Amino acid sequence: MEHYACILMGAPGSGKGTQAKRLCEHFKIPHISTGDMLRAEVKAQSDLGLQVQAVLDSGKLVSDDLINAVVQSRFGQDDVKRGYILDGFPRTIAQAEALTQILDQLRLPLPKVLLLEVGDESLITRLTGRLSCPNCGELYHKTLNPPRQPDVCDKCAHEGLVARSDDDRATVLKRLNVFKEETAPLVKYFEEKAQLTCVNGEADVDEITAELKSRLSS
Ligand code: AMP
C-alpha cells in the first residue's frame, strides 16, 4: 500500500491548514490537525474541551501529555495506514519523541518534515485578517483572500464567516513567541535526522502546493 506521510511545520499563519487540506484531497489521506481537534472539543464542551479552552485562548501550548494522548488515540484509526498530514503536531521535542514511539508501535515509517518559511510581518497580517466558514471550514482572509460575496462562504453559501478567538493581535504575538521558543528548536532536531525540507511559504499558494506535492511523492 502506498504511504504518503508528512509533518507540515511552520509558524502560526504560515499556511499549514490551507496546504494540508489540498494535499489531503490530492493524496486521499487524513488531515490530522491537533488545533482543529482541540477546537472541536471546545465547541462540543466535552471534558477535554473545558480543560483546554483557557489555554487555547491564551495562545500557550497545552501539555505534552495531553496532546500526545489525543494523537495516540487518533493513530488508533485505520486510515493512517495510507498516510497522513500532521498539522500543528509535534510542537515540542517531547511530542516528536512521542510520535516516533507511536509510529514504532504501529510499524509505520517516519514521515517527511516539510517546513513552510514565512516572515513575521506576513504572519501577523495573515493571522489578524483570517476568517473561516463555521459550516464547512473553508479558509479566507479579509483582504488577501476575501469571499466573492462579503461574509458568505464561496463553497457552501453559509452566511457569517468567523475569526478564531486566538487571532486577535495580542494573542497572535504571543503565539508567534511561543513558536519561536518552543517549536523552532524542532527544526534543528529534524534537520539533524535529515528529515527536513524547507519550502518558501511566501510564494504563490498554487506553487507551494505543487512543491509540497512533489516533495511528498518523491
Ligand atoms: P493551531 O490551530 O495549530 O494554531 O492550534 C491552536 C492552539 O491549540 C494552540 O495555540 C495550542 O494552544 C493548541 N495546540 C494545538 N496543537 C498543539 C500541540 N501539538 N501542542 C500543544 N498545544 C497545541
How do the strands of the widest beta sheet line up side by side? Answer: 2-3-1-4-7
Element-by-element helix/strand order = EHEHHHEHEHEEHEH
Secondary structure category: alpha/beta
How far apart the termini lie comes to 16 Å
Question: Which small-molecule ligands are present, each listed once?
Answer: adenosine monophosphate
Q: How many distinct helices?
A: 8
How many strand segments?
7
Spatial extent as radius of gyration:
17 Å
- Coarse morphology: globular
Mind summarizing the main beta sheet?
Answer: 5 strands, parallel
Strand content bin: 5-15%
- Which regions have little confidence, pLDDT < 50, spanning 5+ residues? none
Helix residue percentage: 40-55%
Average of per-residue pLDDT values? 96
